[in-house]
Each structure stands twice: as structure tokens, then as C-alpha cells.
Write a structure and sequence with these properties.
The chain is of the alpha+beta class. It is built from twelve helices and six strands. The protein has helices at residues 2-33, 35-38, 43-79, 82-88, 93-96, 98-134, 221-228, 246-253, 264-271, 278-312, 316-342, 348-366, and strands at residues 149-152, 155-163, 168-178, 181-193, 196-208, 229-241. Strands 1-2-3-4-5-6 form a six-stranded antiparallel β-sheet. Strand 1 (149-152) and strand 2 (155-163) form a beta hairpin.
Length: 368
């Protein structure tokens, strides 16, 4: 217990410093990538946008920070000859790594919690803040023009253009079907706040397509046409309820980047959808297992990092270089596996878990 206490006392500060440094590096990368659009944006908005990245960044940097702390700690032990002292006392090397393994298990649980409850919503807010507050100053809906957006209850929204000055949709169309009866709502302009669409200068029509074939033989064509095509109403202003909020619409449709918007449970439900096409099911399997494998890398990397540090990390510079190499090697293997699984070369489970299995076997062998 005394050994474990000293290892944690030395290792925790190293881990926290590495975590802080790596998180800052990642956030600076996001800041640098968007620097050309951040000029003139109030600092609180920029800081809020960067803060939304933090949960997703933590999931990615936990393994790197833990590897860095492990390599520096065990490299110092190797430099002071502690490796031979441990073996002489009958303490296997894997037992010396036990405190950091427990830390890795704790980080894995935290990462899984973040993946389920925090990261999806934070990633949504990243996109909304970028498109609606920073990039366009409240005109984020412009990214949705020309798209067919499902807004719930069978309704679909489309608008031809967006007026960034008035922050209004232009040439709005909402369609819905109940059986063979279609509802068509047209408006010159419209706004979208939360879950309410406000349309101006609207026209509301219904068409019963089930009765269209009867037009060819109708004795009273005009009366039949009036039953098939109905102008329900028109007016200045109409409010339409949407199940999809404005923020969620921007988060889902503003761009094609993948920010991990699904939680673990949502990915599991998607995988179990019996109507999911085979290709989508394949991708869902890969996404679910990737979301599980990456947090658990905190466990598998500790063993190999400790073994490599005890053998080769006798200087701080070499130890830091080794931590970088191990981290890059793991992420390289992880994303290579995902890429191979993505093109169907290997099963999704192997693509997601392959890097973890490889580094686990190497670590167990190295600490024997």
C-alpha cells in the first residue's frame, strides 16, 4: 500500500498537468482553425464556443495524458534503479502498474459517462454556437436553405433562400401527407424560433390524390376538381408547431462534419432498428463499438507504457518522446482499423477493438 500511495502521489500531478496541457493544445487548434471568422466576435462568445468542445476533447486526451504520466513516472523509476528493487523484493512489474491501471479504469468510466450524457449535447452546441452565433451572428439557418428538413408529425420544411439581414427564410414550403391527402403550405417569408415557425403571407392548400384518377370520367369535372383541389385558407400570419427545435435543426443539418451527436444508448437503439438498411447497420455497428473502445483505451495503454518506460525511458526527454510515439501509434492503429472497417475490409467489431487488443497483448507480454 505504501508503494501504491507513493506512485499515485507522484503520478497524479503528472497526469493533471498533461491533461491540462493537451486540452489547451486541442482547444487552441479549434481556435486557430476558426481564427479568420473570430475577428470582432465578443470574447465571452468565443470562450463559450470553446468550452463546448471540452467534453469531447477530454474523451480523446484522457489516454494520451495517462500514457504521458505513466511513461514519465516509470521512466523516473527506471532511472533510479527502482525496477531492480521491485524485482528483488518479489514485486512483479504489473503490480507496480496497478495504481495507474485503477486510474485508467476510473477514466474509462468517466469517458463512458461523458459519451452517454454530455458529449452529444455539447457537440450539438458546438455547431449551433458556430453557425448561429459566431460565423453568421444569428443567421445560422442559411446553411439549411435548399434542404428538405423533417420537422415532425409527417411535416417537411423547405425554403429557397435566406435573408441574413432580416434573418428570415424566403420562399417557404411546408408539406405533409395523411394517407393520400397532401397538405401544402406556402409562404413568402418565415422565421423559426425554438419550436415555432411563423409564416408571413401564407397560402394553404389540400390535394386528395386518391380522387385524381376520377377526374378523367367525372360527369361534372368542375365539381370534382373542387373536391380534389382545395384552397383551405390564406392570410398574413400563421404559426406552425415543429417537433424539431431551431437549434437542433442547425446542429443536425448545418454541415457534414461528424461530431459524435449520438449517445451510447442512441447508437445502440439505432443498431437494433430492424428497418435499418444493411450498409447503415454496418456503420452503426462500427460507431457503437468505436464509442466503447476509445474510452477503454485508458486501461490497455497503461501496461505497455509502463513496460516501455521501465526499459527505455531513463531520461525525461526520451520518456516524453516515447509517450508521443505510443499515443500516435495507438490512434494510428485505431483510425486505421476504423477506415478498414468503413470500407468493409474487416468486421466493424475488429476495426473498433483491434487497436485495444493489439496494445493489450503487447503490454501484457512486456510486463511478464
Amino acid at each position: 500500500m505504501t508503494l501504491y500511495r507513493h506512485l499515485l502521489k507522484e503520478g497524479l500531478p503528472l497526469f493533471l498537468l498533461a491533461l491540462l496541457f493537451l486540452t489547451a493544445v486541442f482547444l487552441f487548434g479549434f481556435f486557430y482553425a476558426g481564427a479568420r471568422w473570430l475577428e470582432g466576435v465578443p470574447i465571452p462568445k468565443i470562450l463559450r464556443w470553446l468550452s463546448y468542445h471540452v467534453p469531447g476533447v477530454l474523451v480523446q486526451v484522457f489516454p494520451i495524458a495517462l500514457v504521458t504520466a505513466t511513461v514519465l513516472l516509470f521512466g523516473r523509476l527506471a532511472a533510479e534503479g527502482a525496477q531492480f528493487a521491485l524485482l528483488s523484493a518479489g514485486i512483479p512489474l504489473f503490480r507496480a502498474a496497478l495504481p495507474l491501471l485503477l486510474l485508467g479504469a476510473l477514466l474509462s468510466l468517466i469517458a463512458l459517462y461523458l459519451q452517454e450524457y454530455v458529449v452529444p449535447e455539447a457537440n450539438n452546441r458546438v455547431r449551433v454556437a458556430w453557425w448561429d452565433e459566431i460565423h453568421t451572428q444569428g443567421a445560422g439557418l442559411f446553411r439549411l436553405k435548399g434542404m428538405q428538413i423533417p420537422i415532425g408529425q409527417g411535416k417537411s420544411l423547405y425554403f429557397q433562400d435566406f435573408d441574413p439581414e432580416a434573418k428570415e427564410m424566403v420562399g417557404v414550403r411546408i408539406t405533409a401527407f395523411q394517407g393520400e391527402v397532401g397538405t401544402f403550405l406556402f409562404a413568402e417569408r418565415g422565421t423559426w424560433e425554438d419550436k415555432t415557425l411563423t409564416l408571413r403571407n401564407y397560402r394553404y392548400y389540400q390535394v386528395d390524390f386518391g380522387q385524381v384518377p376520377g377526374l378523367e370520367t367525372a360527369p361534372d369535372l368542375l365539381a370534382q376538381v373542387r373536391r380534389v383541389f382545395r384552397a383551405v385558407s390564406q392570410g398574413k400570419t400563421l404559426e406552425v408547431a415543429s417537433d424539431l427545435s431551431r437549434a437542433r435543426a442547425i446542429a443536425d443539418y448545418a454541415d457534414t462534419f461528424s461530431f459524435g451527436q449520438d449517445s451510447l444508448s442512441a447508437a445502440w437503439r439505432k443498431l437494433k432498428d430492424p428497418f435499418l438498411p444493411p450498409l447503415e447497420k454496418w456503420r452503426a455497428r462500427l460507431e457503437l463499438h468505436s464509442k466503447l473502445a476509445l474510452p477503454l483505451s485508458n486501461l490497455v495503454l497503461v501496461l505497455l507504457a509502463a513496460a516501455m518506460a521501465l526499459r527505455y525511458g531513463k531520461s525525461a526527454g526520451l520518456a516524453l518522446g516515447m509517450s508521443v510515439v505510443l499515443s500516435l501509434a495507438y490512434y494510428g492503429a485505431f483510425f486505421l482499423g476504423r477506415s478498414l472497417a468503413g470500407v468493409g475490409a474487416i468486421p466493424p467489431e475488429l476495426g473498433a477493438w483491434g487497436a485495444n487488443l493489439l496494445f493489450l497483448l503487447l503490454g501484457v507480454r512486456a510486463l511478464r
